[in-house]
Write a structure and sequence with these properties.
6 copies of one chain form a homohexamer. By secondary structure, chain A is of the alpha/beta class. Chain A has a single domain (4-251), classed as Phosphoenolpyruvate-binding domains (TIM Barrel). Chain A has helices spanning 4-10, 25-31, 50-60, 76-85, 98-108, 132-139, 149-153, 155-159, 171-177, 189-203, 216-225, 235-251; strands spanning 15-20, 38-42, 66-70, 89-92, 141-146, 166-169, 208-213, 229-232. In chain A, helix 3 (50-60) runs parallel beside helix 4. Chain A is globular, with a radius of gyration of 18 Å. Chain A starts with a helix and ends with a helix. The mean pLDDT of chain A is 97. Chains in contact: A-B, A-D, A-E, A-F, B-C, B-D, B-E, C-D, C-E, C-F, D-F, E-F. The interface between A and B is large, with 41 and 41 residues.
């Protein structure tokens, strides 16, 4: 199966990414058929763990979306496990220094690029015809989250770490770390200026930048601004918003 | 905890009901906080079984919505189990004859009204102060589904069965049984005329009629028409519609 | 593995039986090591289904207690499944007529005694050395619950059904069906007199009678009265009572 | 997705069918990629229930095998549920009379052929382009098990029931009902003669016959004999046999 | 929902805390209604993981007890996840140095006090009206376990770390680290003297001390001695003790 | 229960070890009865997490095989948890330095040998009569994986760490780290020479060496070569191979 995110990025296009917080293969199955290019299981803030991630991956497999994971932390055990489960991309929270970025690359890549252990239990079954182990280092996207003041200050050193394919910006944590209210779909010029700098720093290195968004309208603006991967809330957020609207309309 | 559906019906009001197909306590928890008066776990067509129903009930308990179940079939084992789990209402598919309606009442009520067995394992913990067993027969709603030509032909005999609190109309099965395309939010005058007859037959007996709907707009119309319980799709349907719209807007 | 209940009954002894409502193999594992002769998974009023029953059986296997099940209803599908899972006894609720008793025996026994289907997926692994299928009809106890006025009136005809090994009395349903308050550990002379008649009717046929109890003290009395299987509440009831007492003492 | 079993049967070919007893989507996923034409979740004797069946279906979806179910019993609730989950064939145990066969057809087909209720929650997502409800009655195979003396005696009447696509023979139950030892891969001429009669009775009506086998060698013979669907043990049986052989060889 | 532990501590009162080892929402639900002020999911030594913790939290939510967690280790990934799930307190094992205590505070608090990432998926739904993120740093209790010789030697430096609300003493590990038998409800004067020193060191800083106990009687003594949070065994321990006593009494 | 691996090693014998990737207690239960001396739950590359490991342990308990775990990483939280669950051996991946080996020993042993925390929730129930805590440090095997060039270079220092009972060689990672194709059942003289050196280094210290193998034939050779623990693929690998062969034979 091709990595649709990688392909889009190669051709300079943006992808629209889904986000899973509900630990249900059925929910993931239905949601993955809605037009997303990729769908990410959120093991950090979502109600997800390793086995629910595997279940969600199974649910989304027939849809052809590219499966990715946001891991709970920059830790080799869980990064290896989600890759073995078939993740085509690892989004890792709170990567604030080049050392942390290097560790992330190490955990995510087979030798000689890294120290990932061999055993792609589920990934191997869906790997490319060239052999999963031979193509994994190229195919799988390593995407540190840039979401703190410290990361912004270290951005050039982080982006210079070999093996980084993209970055993912968490707006609420970024705002939080600058002493601002944690929220999505930021209009604060200070934060938007940071986005511009990040986009420029990425562009100069051929790295793609992604952003977490609260609404499709904002995500659409951010694609036009230059972000190459935009997420829109998560599946439970969309469901809750739709349910509230439906109740209101029915009771009108 | 009061039965909000029963209270609303006593005062002639309509309730807006949610519908759960995803077997996840977390999904149910978030969805139940969206303003629904009641939320029904769909054990017939939803991806639900008894233990997922219990989990959904636990997830929705803090919200204060009234928990109900659509059972998979008119069968005493599962009806007893969902009542023990804490259902305040049993919606039962394909009740086509007064005999089936009587059986449903029997399964749902304690002696002397019925033959339900005593052991409200979870229900007892949240029962009224008067003692669960003393109030259950009054509090718990027995709601046969009227969704076939046969049921329509038997409607008076069905509604005359003592212990029936309401009916629930399944539009797609009803249309199907008359040789029409199975669908929700019907505009076919033939079916709408049946609705009128049902509403009249119910109203004359103090029984409330419910309807499954595809959209909030149609549900709103049906409240005005006289239905006292309207469901809007289910949680996964709302999520899928919202996700498709979000993807489309983001990619615009 | 020997059927300890059968062995005890053969020698005229009574067994003390545990009762599982919590769907957890770990809980079952710890509880089964407390001295019970047999432990019954309560699929009727407990928070249990087929897969949780299998898990509980796995948890209790090392303890050597005899595993039994109270099925949710007198239905061939689930009776076959719990026997395949390894139940050594089937306690079936609401057996009120000899026809229902005959059906229960049919569902529980291999040909020619009954119509149980062959496929003891888990039971076969722990069956006797003579071959599970050859000994199952003899080893597995068929135990209808006698818990309604109707059953009492039909008691001789029910007990005369070939293949009935024991009966199990549900005091709260029995009281309920006579218009009395549903409760355990009954002191009502009317009900106690029924117990005497049941014990006599059983004794004359070599059938053993069991009883559900709320407390160990009452269970002890009932053994002395002639009951050959006594259950004491269930595991969650014991836990709740102990927890309330502990909180009270700690706060004193 | 096409029904590979139906297609093969149309062209007179036999299919090799897998059988799932382990309630694991991962196990089902790996097993379904081994070359089977169809894979059946065994809800009767396997350690399976409705939600594990859904999980197994999700696991096997990418492989393209045709998913089928052996239901625990001829009961409308569970038959409707597994069809909604996406089963392309229903194998139903212990169908002994034409009445039972007619009931099975009723439960399995939408009006006007039957009384199946509309709501293909998962099946609808993978249905044919013509619309799931329009093609389901034609696409989904209804396959009663012929596994008792009574069924053999009623075979013509059973096969004459409209809507029967095939039969499935359970050798161990069939032998059991004739007072013989319950086993697979039978060489008993009496039973083999029954097979011949069944094959002839099926062939004359354009109905396909399936058989449960213990070994691939026997299954191969049975294809040559005329059976159009052969199952080989189940996944756990194959695993256990392989494991025992491996241990033996390693310790040699 | 108010943090009952924090409120009690503010007014100088002690709380009685429950402890969950069984990974079951139902068990947690029933247990949480027994009078505990708070109930802690034990992810270190209990049979618990992240998703079972979420399930237990859902089960205990209606009871109003304050939910807390003992995390398996002082690791940012899991600490963030249990806080997002709604924990009002984090009890962390084996905090032996001020560096480890500082790390624990960092992981547990939002900026600027710490580096916790924003995304209170379940916690946000039950947060205070002032907004979860604004009150979390104040409301959520950070409670290192003091349970080794090293921790005792570093106690002043540990307690001086800003953000520590309480300590929790693990008597068996503490005894173990001093070369004594690991056990609860210690009477060893050497250990009791350590308790006195800990209580004094805490009291002088306005920090509350908690203790794990085996019996309610000992817990009661420890409240009187000055401990402000006492746990009594765990739910499975209470159940096992009650079951053993019941069997013994029934068989007497 | 005795540690069969330890006993065999004491007497210089080799053990044949099973390997579990399927997260199912039932699968583990059947597989554990195939003649293995020990069975290891693979939490690194298998589809396993902590709760599935507990379930597998429960499934395998009656078989008497010695339960072991390959942990996902050298991390104290998970090592403590699997030991509490009842592991008799910890196989830890990627131990490349003596420091890492020392950490592994620390995490795995009670004071004074290590810093493992007391609370053997499930292990305690099956511990030796002398008391689990008194015998655990002796009984439980600590087995670092030697699977990188770095580990080979540090082998003497690693093996000199007190508390190491054995090593486990991962051939595919070892080959990978030397720039060779990652595979099992290696015939490459360079790697085989490393095996010889490892065996000699182990033998001189009374440490046993284990090896992961793809086939029983190769495992048999490796026992003869001097390995004292040989694993043969895993349960899902054996199943898949058997299934492919069965399909092929049936279709022949």
């Amino acid at each position: 199966m091709a990595n649709k995110v990688k392909e889009a990025w190669k051709s300079g296009k943006a992808v629209v990414n889904g986000w899973l917080a509900i630990p249900s293969a059925f929910s993931a199955e239905m949601y993955s058929q809605c037009g997303w290019d990729s769908v990410t299981v959120d093991m950090q803030h979502g109600v997800q763990d390793y086995l629910s991630c595997v279940a969600c991956f199974q649910g989304m497999q027939p849809s052809g979306v590219t499966p990715m994971v946001r891991v709970p932390w920059n830790e080799p055990g869980i990064i290896g496990k989600v890759l073995d489960a078939g993740a085509y991309g690892v989004i890792c929270p709170m990567v604030n220094t080049p050392e942390e970025a290097r560790a992330l690359v190490q955990y995510s890549k087979y030798p000689p690029a890294g120290t990932r252990s061999n055993g792609p239990i589920r990934a191997g079954a869906y790997g490319s015809s060239g052999g999963y182990q031979k193509t994994a280092n190229d195919e799988i996207l390593v995407i540190p989250m840039i979401e703190t003041k410290q990361a912004i200050e270290n951005i050039d050193a982080i982006l210079d770490v070999p093996g980084i394919d993209g970055i993912y910006v968490g707006p609420s944590d970024l705002s939080f770390s600058y002493g601002k209210e944690p929220k999505l779909d930021v209009e604060d010029p200070f934060i938007l200026e940071i986005y511009d700098k990040l986009l420029a720093a990425c562009a100069s290195r051929g790295i793609s930048a992604g952003l977490h968004n609260g609404t499709a309208a904002y995500a659409n603006r951010m694609i036009k601004k230059g972000f190459k991967l935009v997420t829109i809330a998560n599946e439970v957020g969309l469901m809750v918003a739709a349910a509230k609207a439906a109740v209101k309309e029915a009771k009108a």
